[in-house]
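Take a look at my tokenised protein here and describe the backbone shape.
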Amino acid sequence: MHQLVFSTVSSLPFAIGQVQDAGLIFLSKIASTAVSYCQEYGASDKEILATSTVGLALCTATLGVGLIIVGKFKLASHVQKLPTSVIGGYLAYIGFFCGKGGIGIMSESNVDHWSDWIHIFTNRKSCILIFPGICGGILIFCLVRKVRHMLTLPTCIISIIVLFYTILEYSGTSIDEAKEYGWISEAQTPPVWYHMWDYLRLRYVVWDALLQPSQILTWAAMTFVVALSSSLDVAAIELELGKKLDYNHEIKTVGLSNIISGITGGYTGSYIFSQSIFSLRAGIRTRVTGYSVAIIEFSTVILPVAVTSYVPNFFFGALLIMICVDLMVEWLWEVRRKVKTGEYFVAISTFLIIQFTGVEYGIVIGVLLYYGLNFVGVDVGLPKACLGSPTSSSCSSLSSMVSLNILEHVDEENGNEEPSNGGINKYGSVGTNGINI
């Protein structure tokens, strides 16, 4: 649904828009809180499923309404004033979140507490299952950095699957045996595609689980972060396109796509600006490409077989580990040489605070820390008031990096000088604009 809306409404004919984790992390928090509330009050499984599915769809649709309001009242430039050092800490957290998810997928375990990490890394079978994914993710990360070509990542992805099935063939291992050991997840035959909405039943929704103050705060934080990330997407595309774009129109486009996605039971999404830029560089000036992407995705949904039942778990794990390594190396290590000490401290502190308080409170505390340090005279750079004009030389170095690093990476693919920041956004949509996997 996202791609259909972007291909139809966006002023950019080459635009690619998909579900992203900029909002999914918040939706995950909303869902887990709702489930805990329902379980505490003895709700049935049917009520829990209805509350979760309907709740997430409604949050997505109302997020879209919020984004349209932001665009209608021309508030996009104000949304972008969140200190980018705080965004840096959030980006590092996204990396950690992806790595944790990758480890969980590969080991088929929940990774919610530090004790879970100890259990996984002290269990022989779990170590065997996660080893290929960790090595593969690090290898892909290194190759993508060294071999600056847009085909590097797709080649690595295909190679993982080919190598897996080659090993199965030569070892005489069947797919069923691989599933039994844990290399591939057991998947039930998918239901007919139009049964996807069976659990969206309003009469079973436990509304109190969705209307708690903490849920409303999480939704507000999600709206702010998605608005910010979408604005940064537009800023990067604007730089590459070489002409001024209407930020507010594009924000309203993102809002409309989320409304339609939510109404149809889907989740939050936005521009995948690196893929949009690749399409631009490839000379695409027609909306046919976007519609083709949407048709292929829909075809995958209606297939009578579960595609994931033939894909090894470490394939997904490797991609998540790759993103984890890239974001955490970029924003917890390499960034220290490119920003002021105060900015670096805020970024690191925000990352750590989020680990203990959650995303929404971590961002709020990070902003308070930023302005607190600025108040007592610590040089923490400028708040990102200049994101609306990303070429402004008055921007702080960290702030400029957010919207410029993907463009440096794309330039590198055309033989230009190697970017200094390692290009955090080269795999899809990675950064404050989220992660497209």
Q: What stands out?
A: Residues 41 and 422 are 49 Å apart (CA to CA). Residues 213-241 form the longest helix (29 residues). Residues 2-413 form one domain. The beta strands are 17-19, 269-271.
